[in-house]
Write a structure and sequence with these properties.
Radius of gyration of chain A: 22 Å
Strand content of chain A: under 5%
Order of helices and strands of chain A: HHHHHHHHHHHHHHHH
Strand content of chain B: 15-25%
Shape of chain A: globular
Number of helices of chain B: 3
Largest sheet of chain A: none
Number of helices of chain A: 16
Mean pLDDT of chain A: 82
CATH topology of chain B: Glutaredoxin
Strand order of the largest sheet of chain B: 2-1-3-4
Structural class of chain B: alpha+beta
Mean pLDDT of chain B: 87
Oligomer: heterodimer
CATH architecture of chain B: 3-Layer(aba) Sandwich
Low-confidence stretches of chain A: 1-14
Structural class of chain A: mainly alpha
Number of strands of chain B: 4
Helix content of chain A: over 70%
CATH superfamily of chain B: Glutaredoxin
Radius of gyration of chain B: 11 Å
Distance between the termini of chain B: 11 Å
Number of domains of chain A: 1
Helix content of chain B: 40-55%
Chain lengths: 354, 80
Amino acid sequence: MTTGSIPAPTVGGWRRPVAKGAMLAAAASLWLVAYQLNRPWWDLIVYDWLGLDEGSRLGSGVHFFLYDSVKILLLLTGIIFVVTIARSYLSLERTRALLGGRREGVANLAAAGLGVATPFCSCSAVPAFIGFVAAGVPLGVTLSFLIASPLINEVAVVLLYGMFGARIAVLYVLSGLVIATLAGYVLGRVSPARWVEDFVYQTTLRGTAILPGQRLTRSDRVVMGREEVATILRKVWPYLLAGIGLGAVIHGWAPADFFTRVAGPDNPFGPLVAVAIGVPLYSNAAGILPLVEVLYAKGMAIGTVLAFMMSVVALSLPELILLRRVLKPPLLAAFVGAVATGIVATGYLFNAIL
Amino acid sequence: MFIKILGPGCANCHALERLTRDALTDLHLTAEVSNVTDYPTIAGYGVMNTPALVVDDHVVLAGRVPTAAQLRDLLTTAAA
């Protein structure tokens, strides 16, 4: 019997490739039009039809909430769809094969890059960890992968692009790659194997590695993209609305220089405090970014803002609880320490150069 | 047939179990369905993405919740 073959759907799906292509093109144009019309449309409704004053707190707060909700929703839908399809060509199994038998250092960088590109849910962190380590991928390299995957989140990158522009988004990706590469490399240097739970090394892999991407047709991938959009939106919308709502309140009510005094470029402890607050906070990129945008608009230094955001998405209590199943406390503490240090350093660097 | 649902108990694992039981009913197949939740055993099957479906000790699906039709096809093939 062949493993890994996912049968083509027998019902549903489109029958003709031409009709399918036309529908995708129509969806893409609709998306573009909606994105372009978002601001004028809410200007018209909030300021003209509802008669709210553009300069008032209520008016600008309401406008911000509506405009930002639609913008983020559109960005998320588009990005997740495209990224899911692009990622369906990679798999954890292929990534593991690419990382096996490489020298540490280069492999850490490769692992960080693949951590971004491989479809991976942090709920699979434990079986993936065991699968990598039992197949001979060095521990530090495995950790680089596990750090990069949540840290350089595709949702975060595109939302940063939408809110702060290409330069900040690129800097975010590059610094995330550097943090994941270095943290994994350093952790690999302290003989971490003694702090890995024994059963990991006793696990023998007897099953056949299966390649989920092996037999996917193009329409399978489109369906996967659509389903992923629905799944993620269903999961993040409460965070998203809470984040945008809080953002709208700060936007309308907090004085413009509020954070300049507390966490502006002149505060030497900014990034440190931001990470200390961000690590225990658990949210996802979609929830935290509207808040981040407002913090920045109200004068918080960009490095401090990015450090805050990175610490929220990269380190979370649920993920640490999962990783505790395979990592003993000293290594888990070192893992948190290395990532947090990297993020704080990035924060200071950006505050200094931007 | 012995069917195992591999997964630590996440929402997707429960969805896969429910779909599998539905598909078995639809196909008039009888099988013993059990859950494997401990990580060493899951990893022992070579599975890195949960949930996964194991039929008579062969991994037939991993990392995603299939559609009902895909699942019916998988189980028909496995039962043959």
